[in-house]
Amino acid sequence: MSILPQEELVKKWESEQASLRQQVVEEDTEDWQRCPDFTGLERVGGVDLSFIKGDDVNACAQLVVLSYPDLELLYEDSQMVTLTAPYISGFLAFRETPYLLEALQRLETTQPSLLPQVVLVDGNGLFHYREFGLACHLGVLSGLPCIGVAKNLLQVQGVEKNEKHQSQIASLQKGGESFPLTSDSGKVLGKALRSSDSSTKPVYVSVGHKISLDTALRLTHSCCRYRVPEPIRQADMRSREYLRVHFPTAADT
Predict the structure, then answer these.
(1) Of 72, 101, 139, 146, whose Cβ has the fewest other Cβ atoms within 10 Å?
(2) How far apart are CA 242 and CA 239, in angstroms?
(3) E strand residue ranges, 52-132
(4) Structure pTM?
């Protein structure tokens, strides 16, 4: 297969992103989303990729499905994958989505009753350069509600890690409190969430697909035992453990 020059690849991906972006649904679509306590929600998924240290091509693609609201493990899938697309800033989804989508498809084929009703993604959704991050990409292609939960702030569309941002973080007094991430144009792209009383560093929540921002925020907070919501935390821990067991001489990243 011929490899496109980076400039051509960026143009191709920009076009695909713009087309897929039009399919994103930024509102609640499921009955359980409209219930204060999420009645009817029984399965939440989490996805993550972990790389061997010093190797940006071979990774463990991880899917977990947890019960809700107890957050007990129902299913896990760890798969070593070889990433073929290059890393280009702003286009991470083209590099990682295929393998996360495959994990969901394997589950749907083998144990459809365990398919998650919503997926929490380690990355951004609408809080992205072109408002189409990994959580949007996976949501549109899978058809599942998805939420982007990033551990670090993406400085995009006028949102900056400056004194104002640090002051807003300091104003969050307890778990569940948040403030909006507002672009230069005035659009709220996501929210910074203090996810637990014990954690002063927020996570950054944004819509992926088929869920509203307020619902995404409430659900993310309800899935937090620690700073990182449990579906993503478990996916991260289990993918790292898989690498430790199968590649004991290589530290994970």
Answers:
(1) 72
(2) 5
(3) 58-67, 73-82, 118-122
(4) 0.94
3-class SS at 182?
strand
How far is the C-alpha of 233 from the C-alpha of 158, rounded, in Å? 29
The position carrying tokens 């309800």 is: 222
- Which secondary structure element, helix H or strand E, spans residue 244, and what is its range? helix 230-246
User: Residue 34 pLDDT more than 80?
Assistant: yes
Note the maximum CA span of the chain: 54
The stretch 161-172 carries a mean pLDDT of 93
Distance, CA of 229 to CA of 149 (rounded, Å): 8
Residue 197 has pLDDT above 90, yes or no: yes
User: And the tokens for 152?
Assistant: 């670090």
Report the alpha-carbon distance of residue 77 to residue 112 in Å, rounded.
14
Tell me which residue has tokens 């778990």: 175
Per-residue pLDDT averaged across 201-208, rounded? 97
Q: Which residues contact 97 (CB under 8 A, 6 or more apart)?
A: 134, 137, 138, 141
Residue 246 structure tokens: 């199968």
Give, for 109, the enclosing helix (H) or strand (E).
helix 92-110
Could you tell me how many residues make up the chain?
Answer: 253
Q: In what helix (H) or strand (E) does residue 217 lie, and over which residues does it extend?
A: helix 213-222
Q: State mean pLDDT over 173-178.
A: 96
CB 203 within 8 A of CB 148: no
Identify which has the larger pLDDT, 228 or 160. 228
What are residue 140's DSSP bridge partners?
none
Specify the range with the lowest mean pLDDT, choosing from 1-10, 33-42, 193-202: 1-10
Q: How far apart are CA 68 and CA 58, in angstroms?
A: 32
